[in-house]
Amino acid sequence: MDAIKKRMEALRLEAEESSTKADELKAQVNKLETETTQKEQEVTSLSHKNQVLEAEVEKLEALVKTYKDEAGAGAQAGSQAESMQRKIQVLEEEAEESDRTIRELNEKLRQTDVKSGHYERKVQALEAARDQWETKYEEKSKEYEKVKKELDDFVNEIGNI
């Protein structure tokens, strides 16, 4: 009877541990989903910033062309064209940096998606294992009750003798 109680307690502890582990993994999945959402927002923000910078580069390139046309009119126009060219160069460098950042974020997002899928599969496996343990626990509880009743009946019969 003590062995059954010990086994029941062990099964109960295993079920609690499985439940705790499943909760932890669910929390990890939620955290990864939150991180994924944040990374997607960053990518969107950087994409928008990149588009704005590219539009700005196009505007500045148009201005540079205009300034180059007017450069023949005087030295002042030439210095403005140089200034605009420097601005274009800076903006192009910023656009390249934004592109690199977007590529890095896309890679991190892909890795996060892979990890998220992995953890989701782990959670599903743990939930299935937990369900199996719960079923086994219920079966063992029924067996325990049956054996206990038989033992009580046997004790009553011996007591009546």
Automatic annotation (TrEMBL):
Pfam families: Tropomyosin (PF00261). It comes from the Eukaryota. Keywords: Coiled coil. Residues 72-83 have a biased composition (Low complexity). Gene3D superfamilies: 1.20.5.170, 1.20.5.340. Residues 1-25, 71-99 are annotated as: Disordered. The keyword tRNA-binding does not apply. PANTHER family: TROPOMYOSIN. This is Tropomyosin. It comes from Pleomassaria siparia CBS 279.74.
